[in-house]
């Protein structure tokens, strides 16, 4: 069950605003309120009072992901007393935010009042907010040319927030004061703009830096409408499916991030901590969404190609050809106290880049894209062999070069995620199993591209040979004969890390597992130790490190399950794929159709609902993309030449499922599936 | 305008001479446009990139992007000591106009190891 919400979040483009239920922003060490953009808090205080009194919330309305409306009256009491004033506060995000205030006098006598908006900005870096660090520069405030400027300076680093109003007001360094006269039943309105200049542009006045969709009040709404209008239409006899699908599409629209260096939008990883480009998250989300919104993949590939590593830089874990992990814009990154400009500490984003490149061409037929990115794809292939495999054992392993880097550079990136069955910690450098699977898949896919588009059959043959050798070696070296499963990893001392984890499901998605070993993996995945009834746990119950509320040690991650479902389907385990997909979709109904980043690994018969992980990000891009990849797997959607194959295998709860207007190289086509129950 | 030491001027000149000599930088194959380098105290330069082909000029040509910084920062960027993206975030390099074009210069100074 969702916890009682205490905040309202809206977002648009690269901006998000977190306030209380009255619309006020009052950042404290425990309340992460604020107006955030570019990984910086541009407002830490934004409090509305009338005649010095705070207001009480009658109701509020999250109109869309980019706007919210608050209905307020004077007074703070718990008992509502007939108010003589109505206050409406409507806020829309986009390159800062715009706030419209409307006050109505509900009495027959005229009224004079003083409305005050207190404003302050601490310009905290998101990293500082997370870790409660203090600032090194100076803040300043000034009133100039009818606007309030809140600023921060540290050497050449300057960030400013500009506040203006269209109604007469007295500005001071701490806010805006409006003296208002209201006739009987009279109204007063004002529009207040809080603007955040683009942090990378030398002349913010001239450039504005507004991402697309923020040029007018109506633009985000029109943009969302056209986004939803362009997506395929879903109908299903299982009632919650339509809502889950709609939620996914809207959340992916909300999480679009405009990278600035290429046209278009790509998925940011998630609200509130990860509103930025993440190689792995953006790639996997784009993969999940390909049958529905293929344009995300194109932007993701182009942006990541533009930022591809070109040099060895140990501080950033950068190497030539490597695809980035994370890009940040805050003060600590700017002063190189953090390596995120961008940071390259991800061992899987480079093979995932190749996988998405091939898959995008298969769906869209975008020949120009794969021809254009040939150089980047070759550099990525070179990175895998020349840098990814650090010790020449034929596997990618990772270990950060500097302490600022990430300890684990696989998707389970918490420091203690790679454990032995007895719960002890493995040693660095680590080769986790799923990354070797991605490399296998990436090489086969790159071979297809080399043959079909780059006119290089010799490269294609070499890659296919490499992949076949890797598969043979992997099935030998990673196999745990005693446990009938693949090891989670091989560690720095050459030991097989023998915990049973969800990672083995990714090996099915990649196709690296031999069929009989795949069958053993399916046994584990569908067994009670890994499958909770709500989904497949990150680590099996009974392992030494298992913890149903440990971040990567037993929780259920929806995106992880979507990849496993795709893997089960790939190996022909369609009934099992349908069972896992249905469990996750069922779980989604307990979260209003919005899957969280992760939920607890408790057995389904122990809790009557899935228990949300305490600090899970929501919405989170690859959780939002999860239902989309599930739908693809359930309907058996697979591009074949210029056509889309449809080969449905639905869970018994679903009688029929129809998706119309699926975009692709076939322009638009439909898919329909009938379930087992409907067939009988 | 500050006066630069002869050695700084020489090193900046050498950098642009070297760029002109390289003629083509594969890492810039997707880059098109003209950059103006406005380095405090040094002669202004214009660099035109046409799908990786480079042309350096001392004469003003229409620009898509202006990169503004002090000579010390510029030296550190071209020697690979200073990351251009972080310097831009910090405001020690200012980019006016096409940001992607401005930042692409990092690729011209850092192909291969080191």
Structure summary, number of beta strands of chain B: 5
Mean pLDDT of chain A, rounded to whole units? 93
Shape by Cα distribution of chain B = globular
Low-confidence stretches of chain A: 204-215
- Overall mean pLDDT of chain B stands at 89
Helix content range of the residues of chain A, please?
Answer: 25-40%
Number of helices of chain A: 19
The largest pleated sheet of chain B is described as: 5 strands, mixed
Q: How far apart are the termini of chain A?
A: 35 Å
Largest interface: A-B, 29 and 29 residues
Query: Can you list the strand order of the major beta sheet of chain B?
Result: 3-2-1-4-5
Oligomeric state as shown: heterodimer
User: Can you count the beta strands of chain A?
Assistant: 29
Architecture (CATH level 2) name of chain B: 2-Layer Sandwich
Total of DSSP H or I helical runs spanning 4+ residues of chain B:
5
Q: What fraction strand of chain B? A: 25-35%
Main structural class of chain A: alpha+beta
Describe this structure in words.
The complex is a heterodimer of chains A (680) and B (114). Chain A is an alpha+beta fold and 680 residues long. Chain A folds into two domains: 8-207, Beta-galactosidase, Chain A, domain 5 (Distorted Sandwich), CATH 2.70.98.40; 231-679, Glycosyltransferase. Chain A is built from 19 helices and 29 strands. Chain B is of the alpha+beta class and 114 residues long. Chain B has a single domain, classed as SCP2 sterol-binding domain (Nonspecific Lipid-transfer Protein, Chain A, 2-Layer Sandwich), CATH 3.30.1050.10. Chain B has five helices and five strands. Chain B starts with 5 loop residues before the first helix and ends in a 6-residue tail after the last helix. The mean pLDDT of chain B is 89. The interface between A and B is medium-sized, with 29 and 29 residues.
